[in-house]
Specification:
This protein is mainly alpha-helical. The protein has 19 helices and nine strands. It binds one RNA strand of 78 nucleotides through helix 4, strand 6, helix 6, helix 11 and helix 17.
RNA sequence: GCCCCCAUCGUCUAGUCAGGUCCAGGACACCGGAUUUUCGAUCCGGCGACACGGGUUCGAAUCCCGUUGGGGGUACCA
């Protein structure tokens, strides 16, 4: 095995906890675990406008829920903290000072308005929008004077105007950019906060990160990072860019077109292990071709080499649904009941849940389906359309007689009939009257459950008990009479 | 516009780096059949792809070039 890898995810606490964060976390954590390294959670709250404590808490909660816990982070601490960038401002300032002193960065006093106007002009002139270098080579005396006067400014990276920069992406190989196309990136904002680029490089180094596995959208900023690493004399970590999750139209996955918040999946009643399994299937595959596997298996077999550079994984909930169903069906009834209760299924229905779960397990994909499918166990259905009681190609008279006939057989049954008892009664009735069994079943099904699509009927009756069944039959007969 | 990445069934992918074993394999979805008291589950079967054009080679999904297409980036957001 190789050296222990230290990996990280670096989400911004802006908005809901994002599936993209979880997606990247899967690979980072897998690599760290596989090599006996550490998986770090760093909060990149350098955008003061948008960062919120609530969002940060949601990130903690949702990642933990997914089983993607971290070895070091703002909440658990660690030897390389603090793990919240807003608490590391001094560190960034030191680094920026080093860079300015060395001339690899410089103060820029252009105002946001000036920059916006500049971009506008460039756009109109069909020029590529980029910083025009106003302060790049300003006389030192002037810069010092403005600095002393306390003029608001940012600090920019001094990118060479010539030559090219090449780096290696572990997934795609060598990638080269012409330096002339790289802007003088802002490193330190006017509010004294670092930009992503600076903070990211500094922290990855200081935190001992060896492998950066992140989304493809970052590829074009790597050259800037290369300059920062060089300017600081820090070695580059290994970089691996995974494909971006996509909407159906192939654009970068977004809130408008996909459920992107992990909370949504929690609320819908997905299994975290199924979600993680699903994410690991996007842009990645096990050598064996196995599609259903747990995280331990991924940890064992993970290899950056197998990340697919050409994937453009459309986020396909249908496959997640299928996977989740597979997990649900593979679970023991006890475990499943516990999970459904934990999901929020009413605790006072726990006993009943355990009784009907055997006939419900194979019928659900997500936990939010349980309640609607099983409400009939708890309350007599009364608001269904009586027409539903009449099977296809049958008439009301048939429905009435079937219900009556079955109801009349109930008293003769055991006080607590089994499913088999009920089934025998249906059979006897159908045989005697020369009815199609299926028609009798359908009629009874609607009377007892209020729906045409339900868990198996006689088992449901067994759970409901003879009295409830009888009561529902009488109600159905009445309903049929009402509008006849 | 400019820069970068990418191009296999509707979708997720295997195969591409080390060209022949691929008239391209698996999965989801879809369609059909079996089973069946509905739904579901299950089992069988089917549909369905190497973007296009050149080149290299005895041989190309695999290598090269171009075209087209898709995506990302181009902020004092990450």
């Amino acid at each position: 095995m190789t050296q222990p890898a230290r990996t990280r995810i670096a989400p911004s606490p802006t908005g809901d906890p994002h599936v993209g964060t979880a997606y990247v976390a899967v690979f980072n954590k897998a690599l760290a675990m596989q090599t006996g390294g550490q998986f770090v959670l760093r909060i990149e709250d350098t955008d003061r406008e948008r960062s919120t404590a609530a969002s940060e808490a949601a990130i903690f909660r949702s990642l933990a829920w997914l089983g993607l816990g971290w070895d070091e982070g703002p909440d658990v601490g660690g030897p390389h903290g603090p793990y919240r960038q807003s608490e590391r401002l001094d560190i960034y300032h030191d680094h920026v000072k080093r860079m300015v002193d060395a001339g690899t960065a410089y103060p820029c006093f252009c105002t946001p308005d000036e920059l916006a106007a500049m971009r506008q002009r460039q756009k109109e002139a069909k020029q590529p929008p980029r910083y025009d270098g106003t302060w790049r080579d300003a006389p030192k005396a002037k810069v010092d004077e403005w600095l002393r006067a306390g003029k608001p400014h940012v600090v920019r990276l001094r990118v060479p105007n010539e030559g090219s920069t090449t780096f290696t992406d572990e997934v795609r190989g060598a990638i080269t950019f012409e330096n002339a196309n790289i802007d003088d990136q802002v490193l330190l904002k006017g509010d004294g906060f670092p930009t992503y680029h600076l903070a990211n490089v500094v922290d990855d180094h200081l935190m001992g990160i060896t492998h950066v596995i992140r989304a493809e959208e970052w590829i074009s900023s790597v050259p800037k990072h290369v300059f920062i690493y060089d300017a600081l004399g820090y070695p580059m970590p290994k970089l691996a860019h995974v494909p971006l999750l996509r909407n159906k139209d192939k654009s970068k996955i977004s809130k408008r077109k996909n459920p992107v918040s992990i909370d949504w999946y929690t609320e819908k009643g997905y299994l975290p292990e199924a979600i993680v399994n699903f994410l690991a299937l996007l842009g990645y595959s096990l050598e064996s071709g196995e599609e259903i596997f747990d995280f331990a298996t991924l940890v064992e077999q993970f290899s950056i080499d197998r990340i697919n550079p050409s994937a453009a994984p459309v986020f396909n909930l249908e496959k997640l649904d299928w996977l989740n169903g597979e997990y649900v069906r593979a679970m023991s009834l006890d475990a499943l009941a516990e999970r459904i209760l934990a999901f929020g299924y009413p605790a006072d229905r726990a006993d009943m849940l355990r009784r009907f779960l055997p006939i419900v397990q194979e019928r659900i994909k997500t936990f939010d389906e349980v309640a609607p499918m099983t409400d009939f166990f708890f309350a007599d259905p009364t608001d269904y359309d009586p027409e539903l009681l009449v099977p296809k190609k049958c008439d009301r008279a048939f429905a009435r007689e079937a219900l009556r006939g079955f109801a009349d057989r109930l008293p003769a049954l055991d006080a607590a009939p089994t499913g088999a008892d009920y089934e025998a009664a249906v059979d006897a009735l159908a045989t005697e009257r020369e009815w199609k069994r299926g028609n009798v079943f359908m009629c009874l099904r609607v009377a007892v459950t209020g729906s045409k699509q339900t868990p198996p009927l006689v088992e449901s009756m067994e759970i409901l008990g003879r009295d409830a069944v009888a009561r529902r039959l009488e109600h159905a007969i009445t309903r049929l009479g009402e509008t006849a």
